[in-house]
Amino acid sequence: MTSTRELRGVLHALPGVDEVGARARAARLAARSVKNESKAAAIDLAISMVDLTTLEGADTPGKVRALCGKAVHTAPGAPTVGAVCVYPDLVKVAVEALGDSGVGIASVATAFPAGRAPLAVKLADTRQAVLDGATEIDMVIDRGAFLAGDYAKVFDEIVAVKDAAGDAHLKVILETGELATYDNVRRASWLAMLAGADFIKTSTGKIQPAATPPVVLVMLQAVRDYAADSGRIVGVKPAGGIRTTKDALKMLVQVREVAGPRWLDPALFRIGASSLLNDLLMQREKLATGVYSGPDYFSLD
User: Fold this and answer.
1) What's the pTM value of the predicted model, to 2 decimals?
2) Would you say 287 and 39 are in contact if contact means Cβ atoms under 8 Å apart?
3) Which of 15, 18, 86, 237, by CA, is between 20 and 30 Å from 101?
């Protein structure tokens, strides 16, 4: 167990974030364009990075099966998505629908989205999702504990969930829209990585602002610096508000320029989204044929 005092010493020794500089650099990177000869490959890469997500109270087995079909059969010649992300009680449906497609099965756990539940409940939630077939777990941190400075509680919970997840990859959701400052985003990123996160993720998608370019930039800097310091490579997953191909390609530019080309891989960068895939497929069709197919050409989510 690591104490809050020890963790505070590490986290508060991190360099402060220049908020004006972070916004300015994110804006400059967002202004860059992907050349036409590279755009088709970039769109296919973005498709392979999508965590196709449905996290609504009205989700049904039929909706999850349809989403899984779309995840595997995106478009002729197009890659499958990175994963399908569902609530724990629908993991078995996704497992059956995805079969041996190779698409990951992600499940939110640990009292998503609030994260306000006893640790025993969070661990049971995680273990059941993995038992049912989840290959990836998206957990939420206790933002109240983090903002109160109880870093040890957050750290210990991540360690415990990581252990409960076993071989499943652990994505730790920071809910950056509730962290108030970029310094807190950097500290929460490092805290999650120190505790064993395989990915750090911006948001649940339920709180705004979510995956803003400056926040993603700060998190990409964090994984880059952590890799240089520790030798361990951690992925990043922005989620919430990424709806268009233009949004996705801006993220890929950031990944390359901030973290580095190594992170341009679905094993290290994912995009949590529901409506993004349709736009990527529409733009892919436009590049191939010169004509927009229209939004009703692809299945609705």
Assistant:
1) 0.95
2) yes
3) 237
